[in-house]
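Open question from group meeting: does this chain pack into something compact, or does most of it stay loose? Before anyone orders reagents, we agreed to write out a predicted structure and look at it together. Recording both the input and the output here so the notebook holds the full record.
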Amino acid sequence: MVRSGFIRLAAGLACLWALLALPAQAQTETEVDLALVVAVDISFSMDTDEQALQREGFAQAFRSKLVHDAIRGGMLGKIAVTYMEWAGSPDQKVIVPWTVLDNSESLMAFADKIASTPLRRAQRTSISSAIDFSVKLLEESGVSATRRVIDVSGDGPNNQGRLVLEARDAALAKDITINGLPIMLRQPGYLDIPDLDIYYKDCVIGGQGAFTVPVRERDQFIEAIKTKILLEVANLTPRPSLINRIQTTPRTNCMAGEMQWRDRWSN
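C-alpha cells returned:
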C-alpha cells in the first residue's frame, strides 16, 4: 500500500510539473509584430541583371530608415524575417534564416547577408511549392507573431508542382497573408503570360489586406520592393493607384502556366 501510494504521488507530481512547464516553454517563443517570409523567384526566366536588381531592392528596403521607423512603431517594436529563393518544385533554399529585427544593427546585418550571397538560377517555376515551403518556415519560425505574411516575387505563372490555388488556399486556412510582386519587365514571350499582375491577384495572393505591387519598368524595381516591404512592415493601407487589391471573382486562368508547359511538350 505504501509503495502504490508513493507511485501515485510520484505520478501526480510528474503531471503537475508537466502542466507547470507548458507555459514556461510557450514563453520561450519571441513575440513579434510580424513574421515575414520573403520568397524570391530565381528561375531561368529571371536574367542575372533582374536578379541583381531584385537583391539590391530587398537589401535597400531593410536598410531604409522608413522601414526601421515602421518596425519601431509597432506594438512590440520587432519583426522576424527570413529570405528564401525558389524555382521549380524541388528547389527552395533559405538564404538568410529567421532573424529578429529590432534595431538598426540587426537590419543592416540582415541586408548585408542578402546582398553578399552569390546569385544562382534554376529550372521551372513552382509558386505553389514556394508557398508550401514558406508556410513550413512560418510554422517552424520559433516566434509568436501578430501577423504572418508571405511575400512572393516572380516573373511567370506556376508551371510545376501542385496547383497554385491549392497552395494558396491551404496557407489562407492558417491565417497567413500572401502578397505579390509580379515582375513584368519584358514583353511576354515563350512560357510567359501577358497579364501576370492579374494572374497574381486572382491566383496567388490572399488573406487579410492582401495586395500586389507590379513592376513594369527597371527603374521602378528597387523602389517597388522598398514600398512593398514598408507596407508589409507597417501594415498600412496601400494607395489604390499603386496597389491592386485581391478580387473576389477570378478573371484569369490559374492553370495557364501548366497548360503552356503541357502544350510545349505535346507539340
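Observations to bring back to the group:
The radius of gyration is 21 Å.
The CA atoms of residues 84 and 95 lie 5 Å apart.
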